[in-house]
């Protein structure tokens, strides 16, 4: 029986499970009973996503800052009013959020403090929202700042590297703690993984070197981490996190080889050339990536769609552009799109990807059906 079939058979239990978890105000994400079933409302069916067993084309948003709490952690960017954020979205909106181990480190005591991240999952569940939790970042931003290169993907991820534990331990911790939240529908092990070797002291991307076995390194990583996540959450939906533009380990046909991993359910493409992405480069463009998704029979989500606005483009003009492109992406075979990126404090006087609380782009959220 396929993973999608198992989800379909278990959908009837979802409503009851959500009511039990959300209705218990005293129960945090980390307090769920060990014998409660893991039920994932989201699944895959060929090149499509499903929600509660029905076809689903999400139009969601990246909101990487949600776990920031300046009283407790260093965080990443500004604090967000969680109830205000989740309450303003249509129910069942997919939000991609950073859930890094650094967010669980108390900046004053140096000890673990899950409060800020618990609050994200609890607020999302309380407002009937859905989360794709990103566990780490390839560039190390908002973590310890260290680039995760070939040595890390070759096995360093299972070794202690500080702040405050190894990636392997953090993966186990996160899946055990939040995998049973009704808001948790997907995991992304690493955002934009690239198993390169640093060619300069600061690991500047222009000096990095890609080893000949980079694709094999990345494939093994996803095989092992995917199995680790599924050992704790058998119905987990795992996103690949790759930018899709020909980065080290994923160039050309390597994208297919790595994407065939059983540890990847959903392929990704990160689009910052909105209006010019189709078909794109013949080897690494979105058109080629969609063809590879068809070959693998897996969904491909445009997990980051970013357009600069503010001082360089009126917000209404950005909305008009994106509202034209999103249907084109859907018609081309993409399985959904997530806008980059929500911030509570947009900078209208600068040219940025900021999407603030009153941005017209938010009016498109959840309209995919």
Written account of the structure:
The chain contains ten helices and twelve strands. With 369 residues, it is an alpha/beta fold. It has one domain: TIM Barrel (Alpha-Beta Barrel), CATH 3.20.20.80. It has a seven-stranded parallel beta sheet. Strands 1-2-3 form a three-stranded antiparallel beta sheet. A two-stranded antiparallel sheet has the order 10-12. A hairpin with a 2-residue loop joins β1 and β2. It is globular and about 45 Å long. Residues 5-33 have low confidence and may be disordered.
Largest sheet: 7 strands, parallel
Count of runs of 4 or more consecutive helical residues: 10
Overall geometry: globular
Q: Oligomeric form of this entry?
A: single chain
Ranges where pLDDT stays below 50 over 5 or more residues in a row are: 5-33
Global Rg: 19 Å
Enumerate the strands of the largest sheet in spatial order, edge to edge or round the barrel.
7-6-5-4-11-9-8
Total DSSP E strands:
12
């Amino acid at each position: 029986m396929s993973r999608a079939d198992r989800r379909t058979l278990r959908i009837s239990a979802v409503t009851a499970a959500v009511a039990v978890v959300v209705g218990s105000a005293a129960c945090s994400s980390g307090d769920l009973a060990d014998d409660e079933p893991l039920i994932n409302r989201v699944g895959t069916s060929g090149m499509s996503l499903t929600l509660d067993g029905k076809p689903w084309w999400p139009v969601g948003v990246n909101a990487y800052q949600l776990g920031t709490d300046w009283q407790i952690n260093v965080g990443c960017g500004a604090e967000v009013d969680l109830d205000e954020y989740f309450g303003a979205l249509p129910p069942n909106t997919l939000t991609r959020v950073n859930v890094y181990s650094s967010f669980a480190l108390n900046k004053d005591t140096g000890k673990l403090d899950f409060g800020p991240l618990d609050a994200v999952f609890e607020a999302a569940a309380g407002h009937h929202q859905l989360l794709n939790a990103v566990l780490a970042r390839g560039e190390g931003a908002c973590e310890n700042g260290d680039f995760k290169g070939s040595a890390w993907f070759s096995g360093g991820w299972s070794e202690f590297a500080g702040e405050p534990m190894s990636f392997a331990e953090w993966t186990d911790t996160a899946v055990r703690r939040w995998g049973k939240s009704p808001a948790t529908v997907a995991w992304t092990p690493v955002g934009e993984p690239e198993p390169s070797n640093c060619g300069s002291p600061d690991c500047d991307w222009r000096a990095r070197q890609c080893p000949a076995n980079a694709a094999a390194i990345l494939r093994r990583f996803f095989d092992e981490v995917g199995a680790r996540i599924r050992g704790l959450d058998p119905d987990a939906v795992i996103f690949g996190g790759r930018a899709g533009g020909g980065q080290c380990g994923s160039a050309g046909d390597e994208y297919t080889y790595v994407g065939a991993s059983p540890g990847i359910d959903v392929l990704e493409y990160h689009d910052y050339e909105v209006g010019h992405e189709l078909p794109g480069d013949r080897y690494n463009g979105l058109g080629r990536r969609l063809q590879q998704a068809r070959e693998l029979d897996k969904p491909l989500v445009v997990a980051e769609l970013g357009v600069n606005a503010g001082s360089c483009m009126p917000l209404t003009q950005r909305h008009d552009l994106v509202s034209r492109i999103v249907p084109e992406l859907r018609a081309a075979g993409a399985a959904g799109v997530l806008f980059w990126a929500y911030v509570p404090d947009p900078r209208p006087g600068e040219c940025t990807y900021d999407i603030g609380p009153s941005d017209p782009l938010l009016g498109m959220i959840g309209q995919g059906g």
